[in-house]
Every structure is written in structure tokens, then in C-alpha cells.
């Protein structure tokens, strides 16, 4: 869902950087690649955590997995995270 929200921002980002709207869409696809790659990376973290998956593991996987585990744990155990009235 985040990707669906970010994709429409890519044409605007390209045009702000000076891309010619009449030119081929290489600049747009380069912009969208960042969004798509990030979405796939996040979605595959859980897949790589399965015991039967042997990799290859991307650079930074151990840190990303550790942070994802801590975030998930905090979302159900930490009073600050679970309290609906907390403010940022």
C-alpha cells in the first residue's frame, strides 16, 4: 500500500528535477525503481527469516531483521507504542 501511495509522487519528482515531459520515461523508471526496490526489500525480510530459506541475504539483513523484530515486539508490549493516545 505504501508503494501505491509513493508511485504517483515519482512523475512529480522527475519533473521537479528537470526531466522533459516529452522525453522517454527512463528518468521516471529510475525514480520508481527506488520505490519498487524498497517495497520488495521490506516484503522479503520476513521470507528470509524462514528456517528453510538459505539466502542469499542482502547487505544489512541482520540489522534490518533485528530492527523489524524489535519494532514488532514493541508494537504489542511497549505501553508507549500500544497506547492510542500517545503523541509523537
Description:
This protein is mainly α. The chain has helices spanning 2-6, 9-16, 26-48, 61-77, 79-82. It is flat. It starts with a helix and ends in a 6-residue tail after the last helix.
Spans of 5+ residues with little confidence (pLDDT < 50)? none
Mean pLDDT, as a whole number? 78
Distance between the termini: 23 Å
Strand content: under 5%
**Given the C-alpha coordinates, what overall shape results?**
flat
Q: Over all CA atoms, what is the radius of gyration?
A: 18 Å
Count up the helices: 5
Count of DSSP strands:
0
Order of helices and strands: HHHHH
| Structural class based on helices, strands and sheet pairing | mainly alpha
- The proportion of residues forming helix, as a percent range, comes to 55-70%
**Biggest sheet layout:** none
Notable characteristics:
0% strand
Summed up:
By secondary structure, the protein is an all-alpha fold. The protein contains 5 helices and no strands.
Architecture blueprint of SSEs:
Blueprint: H1 2-6, H2 9-16, H3 26-48, H4 61-77, H5 79-82
Amino acid at each position: 500500500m505504501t508503494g501505491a501511495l509513493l508511485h504517483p509522487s515519482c512523475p512529480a519528482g522527475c519533473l521537479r528535477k528537470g526531466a522533459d515531459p516529452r522525453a522517454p520515461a527512463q528518468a521516471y523508471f529510475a525514480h520508481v525503481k527506488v520505490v519498487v526496490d524498497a517495497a520488495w526489500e521490506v516484503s522479503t525480510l520476513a521470507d528470509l527469516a524462514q528456517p528453510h530459506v538459505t539466502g542469499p541475504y542482502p547487505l544489512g539483513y541482520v540489522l534490518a531483521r533485528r530492527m523489524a523484530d524489535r519494532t514488532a515486539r514493541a508494537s504489542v508490549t511497549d505501553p508507549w507504542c500500544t497506547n492510542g493516545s500517545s503523541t509523537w
